[in-house]
Queue: 2 jobs
Job 1
Amino acid sequence: MSMFDKLEKIKYLIGNTPVHTVEVMNITLGIKLEYFNLFGSIKDRPAFNIIYEAVKSGRIGQDTTIIESSSGNFAIALANICHYLGLKFIPVVDPNINKDYLQLLKVLCSEVIMVTDRDATGGYLLTRIRMVESLCSKHPDSFWTNQYNNPHNYLCYYDSLGRELLNQLEGLTHVFIAVSTGGTLAGLSKRIKEEKPSVEIVAVDIEGSVIFNQPPKSRYISGLGSSMVPPLLSHAQYDKVLHVTHEEIIDGCRALYNDTHIFAGGSSGAVYQGIRQYFSTHASSHECVVAMCCPDRGNAYMDTLYNNEWCNKFKKTEQLCCI
Ligand SMILES: Cc1ncc(COP(=O)(O)O)c(C=O)c1O
């Protein structure tokens, strides 16, 4: 079977995720459960779309080596897709990767490159990108998926997630979106503003991220924030930006679980906290139909957000009970 036919065969398993609707804070909240995607997260959508388009155009052949800098869900999605297609994938990761993800990458990929030198901002992103560029120059038939700058990242959200949300949530009034590469925000906001301009789009970022021109500061939660302004942000149309602290994300994850029984990752907790803050200061009513995504499950955060000892670095234990 050709790579293209193989991709067609699993296409229906990515996207069309369910929405769980709950009544909280005097609003109707629709929670898009993105961890139901085939390989476990929202990043299955852009990883699949980028590879799909490159296979379709002939840019990727059976001997192409796929290279990407990611320590998170994007690497896991790419590793699974490349393994399925019989393609070599080299993920470039850093020491902040969680141990289960590293183990899975080592199982699925013959080569995993770990960078250990911090860049000028104190993070690893710029070092990882330099490593990707060096690997690409060494592999003559290589393809850098480049999630930060590839339009097929945000276009998959424009084509799928944005349309799905509009179909699944009648009377939609607000959408809250976590930001890292800006792909979700750009694609979703473009689709929603085109079809229903009255919907308010709220971007949620973490303290210390420079995406929305805040001063840089160390960040300890993966999945949201960035140490550079992502080029895809230029396609986004948003009305408001909220920043949440590490403490607030810890609270948000627990509140999300206690209020809805959804056990989700850091960006979900961040967005839920953003919604709680927003509706504590703005008038709410059952006429407010609010959408958020849960990009991944809480399992990958057992050593961090769901580990009281780790959380104690940010806030006191007695406030951390309940799960
Ligand atoms: C768990 C999680 N949430 C949110 C995001 C942010 O998505 P985007 O890169 O589209 O801004 C990511 C991206 O990696 C993620 O892994």
Job 2
Amino acid sequence: MKKTHRLHLQQPYLSACEAIVTEIHPEKGIATDVTVAFAEGGGQISDAGMLITDDAQAVFTDVQKGYGRLLLIKDFPSIQIETPVYHKVSQEDLGKFKIGQSIKIFIDIERRNRLCVSHTGIHVVLMGLERIKPDIYRSIRGCHISPEKARLDFMLEDKFTDEQIIEAREYTNQLIKENWEAKTFAHPTEPEAMYWQTGDTTYCCGGTHLPSLGDVGEVMTSKKSLGTNMQRVSFSFPNAIFRKELFVS
Ligand SMILES: [Zn+2]
């Protein structure tokens, strides 16, 4: 299995690229030498988009990583890197592709933008929650980021109260209003080990984000119990702004 160079790590707003088909998998779909598409990971669902050849086109609805090398560096999650990336197309469309063929890959930028909003939002909500419980990062047991909403599941002996959630949300919305800049950068020796940073807060993260916090818009939050010691905090971004011009092809 050949690894796929994931262009979005260094060029996060690239919406299209040319690529060569490296593998055609009956279930996983089409793997390529490079891609602009984000493969599901870290709780964030994948991009969707189109694969285009000289005489055909196919919609992809899911993007998944295969197996590569397990990253083992200090203070970083053990993730799979240098993997192939598969673009899932229908069984009928699979027959339109050949190994070695040149294709173009386009992502759905509106969906990507929504994922960037939800993902940036999850970091800023976490910064708000950290003001209440400074070690909250270690209590995360689940994370889901979709174009419409996001949620974090925590294992906590002492759950968040309604007042604490409101206090965290107010801080989160203040940071968003102040439109702090945010950036991503790679580990000095591992180019697929990425970090996200705003102000003096840094998280290990290979997801997709906005270049600043303002476009997340005012965040709505809610919480619910998932049983003993487990609590879910959900959030949505009804006031997010979509800037088409952010993306380049
Ligand atoms: Zn992130």
